[in-house]
Amino acid sequence: MRGKTTIGTWIGFIMIMLWCLFPVAWILSLSFKSEGETATGSAQFLPKDPTFDNYSAILDNGDFTRALINSFGISLIATVLSVILATLAAYAIARLEFKGKRFVLSLALAIAMFPVVALVGPLFDMWTTFGLFNTWPGLIIPYMSFTLPLAIWTLSAFFREIPWEMEQAAQVDGATTWQAFRKVIVPLAAPGVFTAAILTFFFAWNEFVLAISLTSTTSSRTVPAQMSFFVGPDPFNPPYAQLATASVIVTLPVIVIVLLFQRKIVAGLTSGAVKG
Amino acid sequence: MAAIEMKNIVKQYGDGFPAVNDVSIDVADGEFLILVGPSGCGKSTLLRMIVGLEDITDGDMIIGGKKVNDLAPRDRNLSMVFQNYALYPHLTVYENIAFPLRLAGASDSEVDKKVRDASKTLELDEHLERKPGNLSGGQRQRVAMGRAIVRDAEAFLFDEPLSNLDAKLRGQMRTEIARLQKRLGITTVYVTHDQTEAMTLGDRVAVLKRGVLQQLATPRELYENPANLFVAGFIGSPPMNFLPATVKGNQVELPFGTVTIPDDKAAKAQDKGLLIAGVRPEHFEDASVVDSDKVTEEATFNATVDVVEWLGNEAYAYIPFEAPPEVEKQLQQLERDLDGESLRTQLVVSLDGASRISEGDDAKIWVDARKIHLFDPASGDNLTMDSSKAGIVPGGNAMAKAEEVGEAQDSVQPGSDQATT
């Protein structure tokens, strides 16, 4: 019985891994194929003649590197601001009793559910009027507003898990409310803060609709939008290998970030705080 | 170090729940005061009002001669040990203990000296670099104490600090706390629902019921001169026996027979009709092991023993009896107030270990009639109390007042006396 379960689990596991990772592997292999090889429509999985040409070509491409800088800048700024605001808001929601608390939470959820596409038109008009069109803040502001609700919900759940006594102990020990928050509550909510940060960063990093609609030049266009301009000389024959290379390059930071923060997102950091 | 004066302290929550009612307690400088009572009696709330974590609805809280009602916890300079310790899990033991000093802006060398002192006192030296998550319950408890003693606080406050430890460790830590307090000589207020802790630790003990102070006295005074049925039933283990009684002259009629009590006690209980007699289990004895000159007909009775629990040094014998309905109702109410749930009215008798009484025997039991208390069943007051040796008993009828408050509490929040503190 036990053996069967184990074998079944492994078969399921391998199938899911294949399903998820095969496209990734395909892109990876494509990025090492020469342009000639992809143009002839060769269907073999492994490149016949592996080459780094695509990588050097794409990193020499000024538009792409510029877009990469934009992506990093916009995503990081949006993440930092969003997490700071969400931490403060979530703390208030978790700890304070005030009128309209439920309203704030429902409103946040409603914003998160709003389809992004529906906002493109009005935002485009507003941004052209305010002069925010094709600027970094023009993308940072909508990214923040779309990621804040999720961040607030995640973080307020974390704050609620932290025993009240931690804060009261800090206050008795001589801390002001702000010191108790900064020295005790925030470190304890660190896993939540990192979770919120990662979610926000991914949203901003991968976002396409706003990025393509609210920008017009490489001065603020992010990588997902920039990639749609990789058409090459022949519209019927896009440079697959280069597109795949660009995909690999934009995926790398995501993987690195997940690996870095994975250790931080450990549940049960509060273990040992209270009775055992 | 400072004295703490509580003057007519009242706590009423936003929903109208009266948690603490007109409690006045003076804690002298260096005194060890215990707040004790069953679940939901407002003892923790009172402690939290001293430290400033709960607002005071009415009354004055004076610490070291200064009114602190409106001061934030950090401005009261008190240190507190929480029931669940509330250690900072992201900091090492060293930094946990150092936390109050760092907040006060102490220099590194001063912090180090004081933390090492505290850790030496509490034998935490080898754990200083560990995180609280890797410590045992008793070690965490000591870290929490370390954090409290490391700075020169005006007073220590303990909120049921031992309730999460196992029985053996609890006994050891109890002694440790007593020793520490005597050595540091610092004013201490200690909340517990455990009457053993209350009796062994406290210089004085305040017994609370439903947010009303019942009696404030030394452990010995509480034990020997309880102010009312509630205090009598709460202090002592196994608890005091309550029997229906009628007084005629100096004769007290109990369900098992009649005994003679001293004249001065009898005088206080004349013409009151049906009363409740309170006798502690240890004031009974197997007549055959008592010195023969004490055993007289007036002080003995025969009864059939239902169950005997022999413990070596002593034995508990259980003798069931029938109580008249008017007393039974009062006794059941009392049982509920004390968080108990006994199924029958029975007498618990503590016998000498040498006693040969066994189950089913018709035993001759001697009772020390001088130690019998008589209570008024209606008000619960102890009629035979020696008020010169009973500490402070609040004026008016504290039990009836608690009953009234209890009704008010139930109307806001039914079942509130079952609350876990």
Q: What would you say this structure looks like, in words?
A:
The complex is a heterodimer of chains A (276) and B (421). Chain A is built from 13 helices and no strands. Chain A has 276 residues and is an all-alpha fold. Chain A has a single domain (57-262), classed as MetI-like fold (Orthogonal Bundle), CATH 1.10.3720.10. In chain A, helix 3 (53-60) crosses helix 13 and helix 7 runs antiparallel to helix 10. The two termini of chain A are 37 Å apart. Helix content of chain B is 28%, strand content 28%. Chain B is globular, with a radius of gyration of 24 Å. The model of chain B has no long low-confidence stretch (mean pLDDT 88). Chain A: It comes from Nocardioides astragali. Chain A: It is a multi-pass membrane protein.
Tell me briefly what this model is.
Chain A is mainly α and 276 residues long. Chain A has 13 helices and no strands. In chain A, helix 1 packs across helix 13, helix 4 (62-95) packs parallel to helix 7 (136-161) and helix 4 packs antiparallel against helix 10.
What labels describe this entry?
A: mainly alpha; MetI-like fold; 73% helix; 0% strand; globular; B: 421 residues; Rossmann fold; six-stranded mixed sheet; transmembrane (chain A); transport (chain A); Carbohydrate ABC transporter permease (chain A)
List strands and helices in order, with pairings.
The complex is a heterodimer of chains A (276) and B (421).
Chain A: H1 2-31, H2 35-39, H3 53-60, H4 62-95, H5 101-113, H6 116-130, H7 136-161, H8 164-172, H9 177-188, H10 190-206, H11 209-213, H12 223-227, H13 240-262
Chain B: E1 4-12, E2 18-27, E3 32-36, H1 43-51, E4 58-63, E5 66-67, E6 78-81, H2 93-103, H3 108-121, H4 137-149, E7 155-159, H5 167-184, E8 187-192, H6 195-201, E9 204-209, E10 212-217, H7 219-224, H8 229-234, E11 241-248, E12 251-254, E13 257-260, H9 263-268, E14 274-279, E15 284-286, E16 300-304, E17 307-310, E18 314-320, H10 325-337, E19 346-352, E20 362-367, E21 373-375, H11 398-412
Parallel strand pairs in B: 3-8, 3-9, 6-7, 7-8
Antiparallel strand pairs in B: 1-2, 1-4, 4-5, 9-10, 11-12, 11-14, 12-13, 14-21, 15-20, 16-20, 17-18, 18-19
Organism (chain A): Nocardioides astragali
Pfam families (chain A): BPD_transp_1
Transmembrane segments (chain A): 7-28, 68-91, 103-124, 136-159, 184-205, 240-261
